[in-house]
Specification:
- This protein is α+β, with helices and mostly antiparallel strands.
- The chain has a single domain, classed as Roll (2,3-Dihydroxybiphenyl 1,2-Dioxygenase, domain 1).
- The chain is built from 6 helices and 16 strands.
- Strands 2-3-4-1-13-16-15-14 form an 8-stranded mixed β-sheet. Strands 6-7-8-5-9-12-11-10 form an 8-stranded mixed β-sheet, covered by helices on one side.
- Strand 2 and strand 3 form a beta hairpin.
- 44% of the residues are buried.
Length: 317
């Protein structure tokens, strides 16, 4: 039983429409599910991913309209990376980000891979990472109807970067409980990998004692989810997490996958999520994300839920 890699990353936006415009029009990702936060159905939950919403490709957002500014710091998931096919794709993206006046840094090498850090319109900290020399967890397939050519499209999630005041505590959770392996280290950052390894299965852990704790808001990350094979394995993981003294959510049915949540020692929220059943459970693969999808237990409240949401037009072209 082994965690397979990154499943999804969930962040916060203050405006679903602007968020949708950025991630579909500029980044060219596919909106594979337009639904609501199951714990608070008054807010959208948007899922952007590859062509079919494969596990390991989902970047999701909760809309909190009054979310304030994020004040970056520790105890945070401080950067989310997005995979692209090769180094040449990064050159394409540098030109594209400049065309759309998106704030970005220079292309730089990190742990043997070329990367391009940038920020969205809400200062969400993002980084494109090249799979030029990558070996490990396979990538997704970009949507063929994206405004970004398929050869340059985003193929999934890369490493998540955690910033913490005490790295040893998180290191123990990653290694001793979740089974990650230390792969590399440079200065204050340690790279851990799981499963087949590679860009789709890494956590980068940085210790910073000079920063205060992050105050999250729009543009911050809420949690990271790791991939497990199925519900049977998830039940076993729950026993392991409980045995190690961490309170947890118990198994939660998110309809598109089953989940388990717990906070690690530096207060970062981890989720374990099953690979299936997937986003085509309630929508045809060619029409993912076009209409408001609700899990069965919320369907009876559809009228009330739709009335509480600002309409968001989403069409596949």
């Amino acid at each position: 039983m082994e965690i397979k890699g990154i499943h999804h990353v969930s962040a916060i936006t203050a405006n679903a429409k602007k968020n949708h415009d950025f991630y579909t029009t500029i980044l060219g990702m596919r909106l594979v599910k337009k639904t609501v936060n199951q714990d608070d159905p008054s807010m959208y939950h948007l899922f952007y991913a590859d062509r079919q919403g494969s596990p390991g490709t989902d970047l999701t957002f909760f809309e909190i309209p009054r979310a304030g500014h994020t004040y970056p710091g520790t105890n945070s998931i401080s950067t989310t990376s997005l995979r692209v096919k090769n180094d040449r794709a990064l050159e394409y993206w540098k030109e594209r980000l400049e065309k759309f006046e998106v704030s970005h840094d220079s292309i730089t090498e990190r742990f043997g891979r070329k990367t391009l850090p940038f920020r969205d319109h809400e200062d969400q900290r993002l980084m494109l990472i090249s799979d030029e020399n990558n070996q490990g967890v396979g990538a997704g397939v970009p949507w063929d109807k994206s405004p970004v050519p398929q050869e340059n499209g985003i193929t999934g999630l890369g490493p998540v970067h955690l910033t913490v005041p005490d790295a040893e505590q998180t290191k123990r959770v990653l290694e001793d409980i979740l089974g990650f392996r230390e792969k590399a280290r440079h200065e204050e950052t340690v790279v851990f990998e799981t499963g087949l390894g590679g860009t789709g299965a890494e956590v980068h852990l940085e210790e910073r004692s000079d920063l205060s704790r992050e105050r999250p808001g729009r543009g911050s990350v809420h949690h990271v989810a790791f991939r497990v094979e199925n519900e049977q394995e998830l039940e076993q993981w729950q026993k392991i997490i409980q045995k190690n003294g961490f309170p947890n959510s118990g198994l939660v049915d998110r309809y598109y996958f089953k989940s388990l949540y717990f906070r690690e020692a530096n207060h970062i929220l981890f989720e374990l999520a099953t690979d299936g059943p997937g986003f085509a459970t309630d929508e045809a693969p060619d029409h993912l994300g076009e209409s408001l999808a609700l899990p069965p237990f919320l369907e009876k409240d559809r009228g009330k839920i739709e009335d509480s949401l600002t309409p968001l037009e989403t069409h596949s072209n």
